[in-house]
Amino acid sequence: xxxxxxxxxxxxxxxxxxxxxxxxxxxxxxxxxxxxxxxxxxxxxxxxxxxxxxxxxxxxxxxxxx
Length: 66
Description:
Layout: H1 3-6, H2 11-28, H3 32-40, H4 46-54, H5 61-64
């Protein structure tokens, strides 16, 4: 999703999207802090971010891609 698409959400929708992204990242093994930062970067593909962690990439590597 792009930042422009995210900005079209209502506050409630945006909160739900960010919460879902955060939960999915924590479940993949991200620390709470890294999950929060990564979830806020809405342009980051959460599925890809999760796979990278499962494959042994450092948590911060996802944010360095963008």
